[in-house]
Predict the 3D structure of the following.
Amino acid sequence: MDNLKPPEFLMIPGPTPVPKDILEIIARPPIGHRSAEFSNILTSVSKNLQALGQTESDVFILTGSGTLAMEAAIANTVSPGTKVLSLVTGVFGERWVSIAKAYGAEVERLDYTAGTAVDVSQLANKLKEDKSIKIVTITHNETSTGVINDLRQIGHLVRQHGALSLVDAVTSFGAINIPIDEWHIDVLVTGSQKALMLPPGLSMIFFGNRAWTAQATCKSPRFYLDLTRCKKSLAANSTPFTPNVSFICALQKSLELIQSEGIEKVQARHLKLRTMLRAGLRSMGLKLFVDDDSASPTITAILPPEKLNVSDIRQALKQDYSIVVADGQDSLKGKIFRIGHMGYVFERDILMTLASLQAVLKKLGRDTTAQPAIKAAVQAAGKAK
Ligand SMILES: Cc1ncc(COP(=O)(O)O)c(C=O)c1O
């Protein structure tokens, strides 16, 4: 028999912890997707998603992970030869490039050093220089490095230029307030397993009027991802294919939870968690991968102390304290580790992670236990509004 252990706690950037109320809904027997009961739930979930995004855009729920919604965004707006500008701050900016190329786009890119954000004035110049850019892809929160981009300014510039903005808000929507219309965002995608506090399996795509205009002449082949089908079905309070009914019922609960806390307070909680974690890590002498100015409110990347390696730190955290943190991705694998703090995450979880990390580093030969990491985090919580 296995020894009794504490439950595994996910401090990774998705999947994230799921509230018990949501798990209970998922465990219920599924209801029919053509039933009046489900139609009512779908209508209410769609309205609540629009309310959370403060938008008049249509919103569709797709059964598949965030990348599916990214592909839907491209398949409905990009024709072979369309000029796309991709703002690449890491792995997920690169994903837009790969999908757009798969659909035959002519992709130009602005690349940024890992750990830095999009340079908005460089973007402004690029857009001024090149009037042929029709679409700009943006990663709001670059999960691979822990960088948040200035979506408000970027959305404004892209609209001024007249291009369409396609925004990946997979690890920001639901944690950060994104007023989609006010920020001039044409298409925004997100996923269930991040700040929306559900397991992986659903993605959502907001699709505005200007995107529909582009869609009408878009020549890319599509069937399952043809949003015209979704729009027609949604007008009849339904979906074109069998959706993940259990998760959509659970999403109703998740949106209620966010609504009852209020998105401003949800955002303030995430900002506070970021501040606490960064203060605690710094007080332990650890180096953070991203400067304060562009540090993500939902994910923090950390350099391992000299002579220690990331896999040992991760393994010891999991083995000794059942806390799971993430490695770096691609070229950053083994160079940084990442702590996710999005969705169903609270101050207690930050303090627990900091204390466990200190214990693990001590075990691995780097004693920081004399450093007041918890005190620094608690003080930062008091200061952070
Ligand atoms: C910023 C960002 N975009 C896109 C994705 C892709 O989402 P999925 O793995 O759900 O397809 C992720 C996943 O972590 C992400 O963090």
Q: What stands out?
A: The chain has two domains: 9-15+262-383, 20-261.
